[in-house]
Amino acid sequence: MAIVGTGNIARFHVEALRSLDAPVRIVAGVDLDAGLATSFCAAHGIPFADTDVERALTHTRPDVVHVCTPPGAHLAPARAALNAGAHVVVEKPPTLSLRDFDALADAQPAGGPYVATVFQHRFGSGARRIRALLDAGVLGRPLVARCDTLWYRPDAYFDPPWRGRWETEGGGPTMGHGIHQMDLLSAVLGEWTRVSALARRQARRTATEDLSVAHVSFANGAVASVVNSLLSPREESYLRFDFEYATVELTHLYGYGDDDWRVTPAPGHEESVTAAWKAGEHGRNSGHAAQFALVADAVREGSVPPVDTAEARRTMTLVAGVYASAFGGRPVGPDDVGPGSPHYENMRGDGPPWTEET
């Protein structure tokens, strides 16, 4: 493995990789700041530090490259890794726009290497259990859902020049924070068909939104409310799925374990739902290691690592749909953010109703 971008999130990647049961070797750390690259590699026992991605790839020839740069700098190193024959694990959001995402997906050669986006909440035991029970028919049809990312970021959080700006983050909490919860919602409920949304710059000194609210319809008939906020002093990440035969809830903040889930069977289904829930997968939280273990297995086996570009694109399209609806003042579907749409070119489209930059 090689790490590109040696900021704070890179530390989580290294710790997760070194916690895996099957061994991996981290062979390089790359950052445009030579001092950061050198100190990061020294701190983590990584043998090769450099400021040039292609030089590091040539020297160390990794099987997988983890792209941990700020979002606006994901595309170039990911393409370089694919060209060098390495799989890519890219932090969320994978790119700043659907156009760039499609360019990255198209850069994958037939038969690999492949791109996987970090959406680790899919891979904790609770998420895998709810998906398995849904597929087995234990929960019945999905009917109603809630997806709340209620976080708090003070003005000082946006002091780094790349934060809170469309050209470097791609969006506000819809794109950069709530995307994890929205991805898990999408992983459970599948394809979305319609979204009606609003987004505001309610209180923070940013060019992007600091709040969005959306109503989403899914192809299976389910409907969901989605709230993404950076204005909530009592922080909470909350997902609720109301199925025919049970309500399943997840309450956490930045990651979950088994104890963060709660199931409430519908009358008449207490025994079957409770027994199936207790018998389902347990024991793995939603940290990076849950996904990285499966990525490493896929690379060893020659299969496509999760989350592949088709799955990640569905979530990216939902994010674009929220912005398109909010800034266009009308409901939209997936086709409304395809090629030819301003929201395909960038998440802001023709721009939010506020115009002044910060």
TrEMBL record:
Coiled-coil positions: none
Record-annotated Gfo/Idh/MocA-like oxidoreductase N-terminal domain positions: 2-107
Source domain of life: Bacteria
GFO/IDH/MocA-like oxidoreductase domain: residues covered: 128-236
GO MF, one example: nucleotide binding
Region described as Disordered: spans on this chain: 331-358
Low complexity compositional bias, start-end: 331-342
Ranges that cross the membrane: none
InterPro entries with a match to the protein in the record: Gfo/Idh/MocA-like_OxRdtase_N, Gfo/Idh/MocA_Oxidoreductase, GFO_IDH_MocA-like_dom, NAD(P)-bd_dom_sf
PANTHER family attached to this UniProt entry: D-GLUCOSIDE 3-DEHYDROGENASE (PTHR43249:SF1), UDP-N-ACETYL-2-AMINO-2-DEOXY-D-GLUCURONATE OXIDASE (PTHR43249)
Name this polypeptide is given: Oxidoreductase
Species whose genome carries this gene: Virgisporangium aliadipatigenens
